[in-house]
Amino acid sequence: MAQISPLQKARAAYAPKLPPALAKGAAVRVEEGAPTTAVADVEKIRSIFQSTFGSPVVTFSAGDGKGGKAVNVGVILSGGQAPGGHNVIAGLFDGIKSLNPASRLFGFLKGPDGLVKGEVMELTSDIIDAYRNTGGFDMIGSGRTKLETDEQFEAARANCEKLNISALTIIGGDDSNTNACMLAEYFKSHNIPIQVVGCPKTIDGDLKNEWIEASFGFDTACRVYSELIGNIGRDANSAKKYWHFIKLMGRSASHIALECALQTQPNVAIISEEVAAKKMTLGAIVDQIAGVVAARAKAGMNFGVALIPEGLIEFVPEIKVLIAELNDLLAANAEAVNAMDKAAKVEFALSKLSAESRAVFAMLPNGIQMQLCNDRDPHGNVQVSLIETEKMLAEMVGTRLKAMKAEGTYNGKFSTQVHFFGYEGRCAAPSNFDADYCYSLGFNAAALIGAGKTGYMSSVRNTVKPASEWIAGGIPITMMMNIERRHGHDKPVIRKALVELDGAPFRYFAAHREAWAQETAYVYPGPIQYFGPSEVCDLVTKTLELEKSGK
Ligand code: FBP
Asked: How many structural domains are present in the chain?
């Protein structure tokens, strides 16, 4: 093992907490609820998932401590990194060993690709111990390959059979758990005795519902970004000469931007879901920010902090329509487009788009046009982390302020600094919350395997309370599915949980944002604390706190 820091050394000794149902091991008592349905497009989802659709929600209570037969389990990390992935694997390892010490865990390498290609390593206790409570996915790597063809499923079966693997755990976000659901359905409908269980991962925080209170990694990533935003707020208020435009990760939903706003109280935070609901044009967003800049300038404050969600561009109504057209266009002409250089792709798009979308596309800076024509990821998503929305908005606000100066409605100075916080937070050492939550999700996945479940997602609830009150169980993945358009086709996918404008976190933000715009009310959350008093070490996100406050 490479040299480790004093913090890593001390952190390795941290013993994550478990819900009481798992305290005696992963052989649990299972209580089954009523049959379930899908969030939307019920009949289509039922017809695609004929073998797994409708399974009940299950809740666990502590068993008698007696395990069962040994199992060989495969594990995959899928999609973007999120703090705590190693603890899910450690929890899964300890969980299957509690079922039977002869159980074995195999890690498929580099994501779903490893499952298809049969690239795999056994995860023994010395490997697991070296990664406990660490950030990163480097134990086995990750990838974004989409599992959807029968050939891939057959290759997965053959690779599992070689190692006598009877259960797979897929640790991933909405797209990866959609993969897990497809695979579970394929195995069950073909009488292949391999269970598939998912674990909810993504810093984006958009894989959540009544049963999945948070996706892991959201807590840690938001704390890392909030620390940096807090530092920048201090710098802005010290130098008093820059407006900082900070883009925050989150491919689609604005949960990260909202949580960071709640933690740090910036002058501006754009929430994409509000932009879509109010049908705000790009011009309206620019006007809103310019208005805050002008008001602060009038009060003698030519500085500020603005948070921009990474996914914003896809929520601006006219750009959303444009992207949907571009997606279909690029998918339908993939071969020809792949052979073009960036400038030719832009020309091609301009020549084929509808008149409305062409006008919108033509208005965008050339750099953004090129970025919108970039390849989609394997799941058909625009790679928004590559689109420099923060730069675009800073420039557009500058242009608007110049016009306002000419009209006599603004008389300040506007200098900008742009930042993008994304990759900085994805591999941080998990906070206590994520360390405990992830370990519990993994251990709980072992309990689902022990209970013979397939097509389920590991669910640990009541997480605003201490772990001694957490509730363990599982929910059928089909319950979260609907039909969406991807790569020019209708596909079954897990529905993303977007920021709810009538939810408590957004309402709290909306009630305070005017004051935060006018005043300099920055909060400095500081770095994640791993050791010390519980009130600074064992926090939950403001989002979760407000969601569960019942307000
Ligand atoms: P997941 O949904 O797979 O967890 O990924 C989240 C994310 O970090 C997004 O916030 C971001 O847009 C994207 O991954 C970046 O992808 P990549 O790592 O491929 O650059």
From this structure: 2
**pLDDT, position 212:** 95
The minimum-distance atom of ligand 1 relative to the CA of 310 is: 12
Q: Which residues pair with 122 in a beta bridge?
A: 106
Q: Give, using CA atoms, the residue closest to atom 8 of ligand 1.
A: 80
Measured in degrees and rounded to the nearest 5, phi and psi for residue 210 equal -55, -35
Count the Cβ atoms, other than its own, within 10 Å of residue 6: 7
330 CA from centroid of ligand 1 (Å): 21
**Ligand 1 centre from 151 Cα, in Å?**
26
Report how far residue 193's alpha carbon sits from residue 148's, in angstroms, rounded to the nearest whole number.
19
Q: Which residue has the higher pLDDT, 75 or 485?
A: 75
Condensed to tens digits (0 to 9), the pLDDT of residues 80-135 reads 999 999 999 999 999 999 999 999 999 999 999 999 999 999 999 999 999 999 99
Owning domain of residue 395: 228-425+506-526
Q: Is residue 222 one of the residues assigned to a domain?
A: no
Amino acid at 53: F
CATH of the domain at 467: 3.40.50.450
Q: Is residue 310 part of a domain?
A: yes
H-helix or E-strand containing 492? strand 489-494
Q: For residue 147, what pLDDT band results from cuts at 50, 70 and 90?
A: confident
Confidence at residue 550, expressed as pLDDT on a 0 to 100 scale: 73
Whether 551 has a pLDDT exceeding 80, the answer reads: no
In this structure, the strands spanning 58-61 and 471-476 are antiparallel
Cα–chain center distance at 26: 27
Query: The pTM is what?
Result: 0.93
CATH of the domain at 363: 3.40.50.460
